[in-house]
Write a structure and sequence with these properties.
The protein has 13 helices and 13 strands. It is of the alpha/beta class.
Length: 438
């Protein structure tokens, strides 16, 4: 070790202890941020003696990460932390984001998520995760396995200088994590409908579209049996609307988590004097999020890569919502809690569920058909391997239900159609066999 290198390390520690930032020190000493963090850690562990060179002799750990890779991990984390403070940059600094950065740098061998977490933990660059308490009521929830099966939609409200309110509508595909958003000066049913049209044009018409119980989605809290604009619009385009439980944001967890990212990257970083500036700066975040590889569930793929790898039915760009939306055949779902009287409330009406237990979470489905409408309450979701119907009720209608337009009908998967055909042929053969025996 040269005396010059040793003195430079001492100088870096003096500067750190004087209050200068690692970035300032790296720039002044013409060293990398990783270099500053390295010697700060050495000093914290071993004092001034830690600034001496350590032996480079190989150790008997055949599966231990090379020191160059460990340094690259710490440097990538440091770079991400710095970028997190800058406007128009994504603020993801977790192990998945670090691995994505190392992959772009072509670091070999590419460390696993577990190894990255261990290196960062040893370097004191992470904080322990907080435990989350389970809610009392467990609600049935869908289990999508592919993109375009479930999209969650919600609103986060912000206030501009001087008091004006901005309603930020956000949507995200639960599997691909592909998001979209739009900001409005209000949160009326017309705004909600316009945003959903945008979502179904940009993300595609998913099988299920989940929303909360705000009046702009539900149709209000005044008229019994209300069938609002958003409900009718969802039926009209062929998606099954799902209403989350009342006052239970955990059921909308994916979009709720996305709100945090949106707030952090747009509202917490930028000066936004008016709605126009919000609408100007928000798209850059959505585009960066879609192309980022930070999402652990996608295993290095971006949301765009995941979302576009699967075919989807999109609402036409020239779609015009009818001035008067009819009732269309289809289904609308509600996640609800049974009260102490074994009843649930939806659409401003109360329904008996005598086979359910108080505080039980249930799944209610309102089915619209040419013959009328019926409410069915289950103990599980439609994609559950087994479920029990707890109650059924006729739902009063004062208008005719029209069939779903052909342009919004989903094609039947080839495999499913062949299975259905084989089943029918088997049933026919059994009938023929029985008739000949008679």
């Amino acid at each position: 070790m040269s005396q010059k290198n040793y003195e430079k390390r001492q100088t870096a520690i003096h500067m750190l202890r004087s209050g200068q930032s690692p970035a300032e020190i790296a720039q002044e000493l013409e060293r990398s941020l990783a270099w500053v963090y390295k010697w700060r850690l050495r000093f914290a562990q071993d004092g001034w003696q830690g600034l001496q060179d350590r032996s480079r002799a190989p150790r008997s750990h055949p599966y231990k990460l090379p020191e160059t890779v460990r340094q690259a991990i710490r440097q990538a984390r440091s770079e991400l932390e710095l970028e997190a403070e800058q406007p128009e940059k994504l603020a993801y600094i977790g192990a998945q984001a670090v691995q994505s950065r190392l992959r772009r740098k072509r670091i070999e061998p590419l460390p696993s998520i577990t190894s990255i977490e261990r290196v960062l933990r040893d370097a004191g660059m992470t904080q322990p995760r907080q435990s989350v308490q389970e809610p009392k009521t467990v609600y049935p929830h869908l289990h999508p396995g592919e993109p375009h099966q479930l999209t969650q939609v919600d609103i986060v409200t912000h206030f501009l200088p001087g008091g004006p309110c901005v309603a930020c509508f956000n949507a995200i595909d639960v599997v691909s994590h592909y998001p979209d958003g739009q900001q409005y000066a209000s949160r009326k049913s017309g705004d909600a409908a316009n945003f959903l049209i945008r979502v179904w044009q940009q993300l595609g018409i998913s099988q299920y579209t989940q929303v909360d119980n705000e009046s702009c989605f539900s149709g209000g809290f005044t008229h019994p049996g209300v069938l609002g604009k958003v409900l009718r619009l969802a039926l009209y385009v062929g998606t099954e609307l799902v209403f989350s439980p009342i006052r239970h944001p955990e059921s909308n967890a994916f979009v709720e988590r996305f709100h945090q990212d949106y707030n952090q990257h747009v509202w917490d970083k930028l000066e936004l004097p008016d709605l126009a500036s919000v609408q100007q700066h928000s798209p850059a975040f959505f585009e960066a999020y879609r192309g980022s590889g930070h999402i652990a569930a996608l295993r290095g793929r971006s949301a765009t890569q995941m979302h576009t790898a699967h075919p989807v039915l999109c609402l036409p760009a020239n779609f015009q919502m009818p001035k008067k939306l009819p009732l269309t055949s289809g289904k609308v779902h509600f996640m609800r809690k049974v009260d102490q009287d074994q009843k649930i409330s939806l659409l401003n009406l109360t329904w008996d569920v005598p086979k359910a237990q108080p505080d039980q979470g249930v799944w209610a489905t309102l089915t619209f058909a040419k013959s009328g409408a019926r409410l069915s309450v289950y103990d599980a979701v439609p994609d559950a391997p087994k479920r029990t119907c707890l109650a059924t009720h006729p739902f009063p209608l004062k208008e005719i239900v029209q069939p779903l337009s052909a342009e919004f009908q989903r094609p039947i998967p080839v495999r499913a159609s062949w299975i259905g055909l084989a089943t029918e042929l088997f049933r026919l053969a059994i009938k023929v066999r029985i008739s000949t025996m008679l």
